[in-house]
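Work Package 3 (structural annotation) set out to generate three-dimensional models for the target panel prioritized at the project kickoff. During this period the team completed the workflow that converts sequence records into discrete structure tokens, so that structures can be stored uniformly alongside our sequence database. As a representative example, we reproduce one entry of 135 residues exactly as it appears in the project archive.
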Amino acid sequence: MNWKETLASGAVTGLVLAIFFQINTLLGIGFESFAGFVIFTLGSIFFSPFIVKIGFTKSGIYEPSLKHLIPVSFLSFIIPIFGVSLGQPNSHISTVAAILLMAAIAGIFWSLPYLLWHYFRGKKDNDEDNHQGND
């Protein structure tokens, strides 16, 4: 796993999720009920990682793990997208662009624990291989 690919897939996941919500805001679709909101929200949270995985895989860049992308999508929704979208003053293009940028940054931020995990796990695996080779 390359760290650049992991950060890129996290950023794109946050961006795709934010695009779903901003399209809904710009078109003024709204929701007839709370159930409609929940279905749209959960659908967006789980659908965006699959879009990113298919896009990265078909482009031949690499195959990201859904174990990484789904939590990044969920956490990117809770912290920047939902909170900022509730408080957005208007639907001006600069506001929408700021939310999209924050979502991409959130995707990068929430990908950092996965990078650290793979870095230290890989270091441990390499140390074990070195000790086995020396015996």
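The chain has one domain: 3-134.
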